[in-house]
Amino acid sequence: MLRLAGLILALGAGARAGELRPFASKDLDALMAGRRTVVIQFHAENCEVCVRQRQALARIARGASRTDPVFLYAEHEREPDLRRQYGVTALSTLLVLRGDRVLGRVTGIFAEEEIRAFIHLSRMRSRAKPRARPKASFRPER
After folding, report:
1. Taking a C-beta distance cutoff of 8 angstroms, is the pair 41, 94 a contact?
2. What CATH number does the domain containing 93 carry?
């Protein structure tokens, strides 16, 4: 257990804001175990939308704080298991993950503002919603 905690702390320090990192299965497992929010981009070098999306993600990651998500990119052709696990079929797909849940999925956006809005909405949708109270029965006193 201590080893896992040490790995998470080390990844937390290394995975801090400032970089868009390549996907590694062991890193993702540790980040997910630590309940970090992770954004994964599936791309190919010959896809123009993917290249522009990756540039926008790199700019977002450079300005990110410790509480912002960790940004990873995965080669579409080199990660068939990851694609199958999350049902990704298209290039330029962005996934927002936390723990074992997919918070958001989108394909084809590359403007920095749109990506920021997508990540924000995905994170907000995952927040717990208050439970509705049962209706109180009204009985007049006699």
Report:
1. yes
2. 3.40.30.10
